[in-house]
Design a protein that fits this description.
Layout (H helix, E strand, L loop, with lengths): L1 H25 L3 H6 L6 E13 L2 E13 L3 E12 L2 E16 L2 E12 L3 E12 L3 E10 L4 E8 L2 E2 L4 E12 L11 E13 L5 E12 L1 H9 L5 E12 L1
Antiparallel strand pairs: 1-2, 1-13, 2-3, 3-4, 4-5, 5-6, 6-7, 7-8, 8-10, 9-10, 10-11, 11-12, 12-13
Length: 245
């Protein structure tokens, strides 16, 4: 409930902020406007949703993330999750304050809330940006409401076969500093996946894609998965669409 209140208050505040910024911009010279372009309110969101199959059955997922704000200060929002045979397996949502600290790099702080597989709230700290060789990087540390510490690293990169046909390899790994029952995870590297998305961008805003990824649970997390009747590894093939707005 507190997270919903935060998001609602942030959205309601934006129309109040924007007119003042517009008035200030109107009083500037073209050179001043160029220097102060970061003061405008902008937004960018990306939704990827797909459906496919794995050894365990039919699978569908969504990943929506984006931001509202200026070049320097943003409200970063994210939600992602997965259905397996029509049953919700994982679902999480984030709300972070994002501050530009260097060219192409933001520091972030806020909260993450998991609905599934178990209800849990996390203090979230991290960075997002563009690493050398154009690797888009997301690195975050999580401290749960039970005091458990974990981390997540995601890397992805785009390789253009043509101006519209794009290959995107990616990898994501979760690390736990101690056993985390709310995540059915043990200490150490918990789970990871590597994949390849192939998409065709009819426009920047609309791009269907084919995605194939391999996921695996390691160490104690893998043992826990076996105990509760889950597979330690999976190979998933899916088709979906990416929307930008």
């Amino acid at each position: 409930m507190r997270i919903r209140t935060l998001l609602l208050a942030s959205c309601l505040a934006l129309p109040l902020v924007h007119p003042a910024l517009a008035e200030d911009m109107g009083a500037m010279s073209p050179e001043e406007m160029k220097q102060e372009h970061g003061g405008g309110i902008f937004h960018m969101f990306r939704l990827e949703t797909d459906a496919g199959t794995s050894k365990s059955g039919g699978i569908a997922s969504w990943d929506l993330k984006g931001w509202v704000g200026t070049d320097e200060d943003k409200l970063y929002l994210k939600t992602e999750g997965e259905h397996m045979d029509g049953k919700l397996e994982t679902a999480e949502t984030w709300a972070l304050y994002s501050r530009n600290i260097a060219t192409f790099w933001d520091a972030q702080a806020g909260v993450r809330y998991d609905f599934k597989p178990h209800s849990a709230t996390y203090l979230t700290l991290g960075f997002t940006g563009l690493a050398p060789y154009n690797f888009e990087t997301e690195a975050h540390l999580f401290i749960s409401d039970k005091g458990h510490v974990s981390a997540r690293l995601r890397e992805e990169n785009d390789f253009l076969l043509t101006q519209k046909l794009i290959l995107q390899p990616y990898g994501e790994f979760n690390l736990y500093l101690q056993d985390a029952p709310e995540n059915d995870a043990g200490a150490g590297i918990g789970e990871g996946k590597i994949g390849l998305q192939t998409r065709y961008e009819f426009t920047r805003e609309f791009a269907p894609y084919v995605d194939v990824h391999y996921g695996r649970k390691f160490g104690e997390t893998g043992s826990i998965a076996k105990t509760i009747g889950e597979d330690k590894e999976e190979l998933v093939g899916a088709v979906g669409v990416r929307l930008m707005f």
